[in-house]
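Sorry to interrupt, but I need a hand with the structure work. Could you write out one complete protein record for me, on any chain you like? Just paste the record in under my message, thanks.

. . .
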Amino acid sequence: MRISLYEMFCTDTLRHRETARSLIDNISIISNTEQVVIDFNNIVFASRSFCHELITELKRPNVKFINTNEEIKKMIQALDKPKLSLRITINA
């Protein structure tokens, strides 16, 4: 399943932990066996708070982040723990 963050939140800026929790709640209803693709297309900024909440609370296999800009990619990689890097793939 592909989730477009721009379409979901109708903004190009993701700033809050609550926004990440809303995304995680939506993902939690998807089967754990299904791959989830989180599309950052048209997202120009994701705060450290948003990224931290997403990375630490996303507890499922087969997650792929696509269309991240360099700033978001670096933020996610900085927050990613070694145990999570096996689950999360980032494609710019």
About this structure: The longest helix spans residues 17-28. The CA atoms of residues 23 and 44 lie 17 Å apart. The first strand starts at residue 2 and ends at 4. The chain has four helices and six strands.
